[in-house]
Design brief:
250 residues, 3-stranded antiparallel sheet
């Protein structure tokens, strides 16, 4: 019958009375210290207790002990360290757990690092965008003839259901436009289209010259919004966003 687990004891060391600092009256005895432990498949997992066997040095027979000797032996036991081999099974069992925990902590650390880096990048991008928007808005509020507006456009093509009824829009191609500021007043800015995209299949026509208010231009300084820089054909629409404004230093 195979025993898979249980308790067992192994003799750690045999001592003389002198090694234990005992009186000479115990000179005819030898003292054997045993370690009791729990095992799995005969591998020590964790220690339980230590105990002594006291034997006659000549006959090797175990003898009884009095209260005084037991007290002295217990004091010696308290000073003796538990041998490392008594934890062998525990270390074997805990190693894969520690390995998995280490992997989890490593992955968690990497994920936290990546998230922190992404957060920092996002903050930096937001700061950069905010700075760009502030500069763009400032140029809109304080215009100069010759300012070059780089504007992105996305055509919104109407979708139709099986019955031919319009059902929302789908995004068309993204185009990059350029407009030059030709004149301005307190109420409006006049923009002239200077860069025409490859837009042969468009369902809308861009206006060559268009007057818009500064307030409307500010609305498209940070995100795509509707602005009528075009004439609608077949109910198509478009949204615009200012990418940047170039100003030539005079």
């Amino acid at each position: 019958m195979i025993i898979f687990f249980g308790t067992h004891s192994i003799r750690i060391k045999t001592y003389t009375y002198k090694e234990l600092g005992l009186d000479e009256k115990y000179s005819g005895l030898k003292f054997q210290l045993y370690q009791n432990f729990f095992f799995i498949f005969f591998i020590p997992v964790f220690p339980i207790t230590k105990f002594w066997k006291v034997k006659n040095s000549l006959t090797n027979k175990e003898v009884g002990t009095d209260a005084e000797l037991r007290t002295q032996l217990n004091l010696v036991t308290a000073r003796k360290k538990t041998p490392y081999w008594a934890y062998t099974g525990f270390f074997i069992l805990i190693t894969p757990v520690l390995f998995l925990v280490g992997l989890l902590l490593l992955n968690l650390t990497q994920e936290i690092t990546r998230s922190a880096e992404k957060g920092i990048e996002s903050i930096e991008r937001r700061k950069e965008n905010d700075k760009l928007n502030e500069e763009t808005i400032d140029l809109i509020k304080n215009p100069e003839v010759g300012d070059l507006y780089h504007i992105k456009m996305i055509e919104m093509i109407p979708k139709k259901d099986v019955n031919g009824k319009r059902k929302g829009f789908k995004k068309g191609e993204r185009e990059e436009l350029e407009y030059e500021l030709t004149q301005f007043s307190i109420d409006s800015l006049t923009l002239k289209l200077t860069k025409i995209p490859n837009y042969f299949a468009a369902d809308l026509t861009l206006k060559n010259d268009v007057k818009v208010s500064g307030k409307d231009l500010i609305t498209i300084a940070d995100s795509f919004k509707t602005l009528y820089l075009y004439e609608t054909i077949d109910a198509s629409e478009a949204v615009f966003a200012i990418q940047k404004i170039d100003r030539t230093d005079q």
